[in-house]
Amino acid sequence: MNISKIKSVLLASGVTFMAISMISLPEQSFEASIRGLQMWWEIVFPSLFPFFVISELLIGFGVVKFMGVLLEPLMRPLFRVPGVGGFAWAMGMATGFPAGAKLTARLRQEKQLTRTEAERLVSFTNSSSPLFIFGAVSVGFFHNPRLGILLAVAHYLGNFCVGVMMRFYGKNEKNKVISKSLTKPIIVQALSALHRTRLQNKKPIGKLIGDAVISSIHTLLMIGGFIILFSVINKLLFHLNITLILASIVEYALTVLHLPRELSVPFIAGLFEITLGSRMTSQIEEANLMQQAIMASAILGFSGLSVQAQVASILATTDIRFKPFFAARIIHGFLSGLLTFILWKPFSLKFHLASTENTVVPVVLQEHDVWWENILHIFIKFGPLLTIVSLILYIFYYKKRMNSIT
C-alpha cells in the first residue's frame, strides 16, 4: 500500500472517529460549538471585519503601494521582502490572526510579491492582536494586566526574529531588480506609484467597496467555521482522554525544561486552540506565574492548529506553500517561550508581575488596570450587533450581484 492510500485511509478513519464521537457526546459537542460561535460572534468578526474591508480598499486605491515604496529601504534589507510587506506586518500585529495571511495572499494575487517573498512574509506577519494578549489572556485569564506587557514584547519580538531568520529562506532565489529613480525623492516615487495603481484599477468605487465587503465576509465565515470545528475537536479529545494520553508523552520534555508536568494538558490543548490552552495554563496551581507565562507565550507563538488551518485555507487560493509557515510557527513558539524566560526578571522587577497591587504601572494601564478589559467588554456588548448588520449587508449585496449576473 503506497503512502497516498495510507493517507486516504487515515483521513477517512479520523473523520469517521470524530463523527462517532460527536454522536456519542452530543451535549459536549453542542457546548463546544456554542463556545466557538460565541467567540467568533462577539470578538473575531467585529474586530477583523472593519480591518479586512479597509485593507482591501487601501490596496485598491494604491495606498499600500505608496507605503511599499516608502518602506522598501526597511523591509528589503531586514526581511528580503518588498516594502508592501510592511503594511501586512503592521496590520497583522494590529488585528491578529489570520490578517497577515489574508493580506499576503492578496498581495500575491496582485503580483506584488514573488512566491518565495510571500512565503517569507506570511511566516512573520501572523500574530496575536494586542486585544487578545491584553484583554483575553492577561486580564481575562491571569487577572494580571501587567503580564500583558511581557507577553506582548516576547510575542512580537519573537515574530520579528522569525522574520529575520526567514530572510535566509530561498536564499538561492535571485531578487527582483527594483528600478529606482535617482533624481526623484522617495516621497515623489511613492505618490507616483499610488497614482498609477489607482488608474490601473478600473472598478467604480461602489463596486470596489462591495467586493471588499463580500471578500472580507467570505474569509470571516471560513474563519468562524474553523473556530467552531476545532473547539469541538478539542472538547472531544479531552473527554475521550486522548488529550491526557498525548500529555503524558510531553511530560518528560517539560521536566527536562524544569516546568511542572501539570502544564502538559494545557500545552496539548494549546496545540489545537490557543484560547483554551491559555485559559487552562492560567488555572494550573502547581506552576508559578513565570512558568505559566512561559507556557502561555509558547502557545501564543505556535498559534494552534485552528489558526494554522485558517491560514492554510487562505493560502490555498494562491501558490504560497504552507510548510514554511508551519515551520515558522514552531520556531516562534520556542522563541516566545525563551524570550519570556529571559525577560522575566527585568520585567518582574519593573512592573511587579507577581503582585496585583498598584505600584509601577505602564501608561496604557493607569486607568485602574482595566483599559484593555473595557475594550474587550465593548466588543462583547456591541460585537454581535455589528456582526448581524454586516451579515445582512452581505446578503443584500450578494443577492444584488447574483441578480445582475443572471
From TrEMBL:
<feature type="transmembrane region" description="Helical">
    <location>
        <begin position="293"/>
        <end position="314"/>
    </location>
</feature>
<feature type="transmembrane region" description="Helical">
    <location>
        <begin position="326"/>
        <end position="344"/>
    </location>
</feature>
<feature type="transmembrane region" description="Helical">
    <location>
        <begin position="84"/>
        <end position="101"/>
    </location>
</feature>
<protein>
    <submittedName>
        <fullName>Sporulation integral membrane protein YlbJ</fullName>
    </submittedName>
</protein>
<dbReference type="Pfam" id="PF07670">
    <property type="entry name" value="Gate"/>
</dbReference>
<dbReference type="InterPro" id="IPR011642">
    <property type="entry name" value="Gate_dom"/>
</dbReference>
<feature type="transmembrane region" description="Helical">
    <location>
        <begin position="43"/>
        <end position="64"/>
    </location>
</feature>
<keyword id="KW-1133">Transmembrane helix</keyword>
<feature type="transmembrane region" description="Helical">
    <location>
        <begin position="236"/>
        <end position="256"/>
    </location>
</feature>
<feature type="transmembrane region" description="Helical">
    <location>
        <begin position="121"/>
        <end position="142"/>
    </location>
</feature>
<feature type="transmembrane region" description="Helical">
    <location>
        <begin position="375"/>
        <end position="397"/>
    </location>
</feature>
<feature type="domain" description="Nucleoside transporter/FeoB GTPase Gate">
    <location>
        <begin position="44"/>
        <end position="140"/>
    </location>
</feature>
<keyword id="KW-0812">Transmembrane</keyword>
<keyword id="KW-0472">Membrane</keyword>
<feature type="transmembrane region" description="Helical">
    <location>
        <begin position="6"/>
        <end position="23"/>
    </location>
</feature>
<feature type="transmembrane region" description="Helical">
    <location>
        <begin position="208"/>
        <end position="230"/>
    </location>
</feature>
<dbReference type="InterPro" id="IPR014226">
    <property type="entry name" value="Spore_IM_YlbJ"/>
</dbReference>
<feature type="transmembrane region" description="Helical">
    <location>
        <begin position="148"/>
        <end position="170"/>
    </location>
</feature>
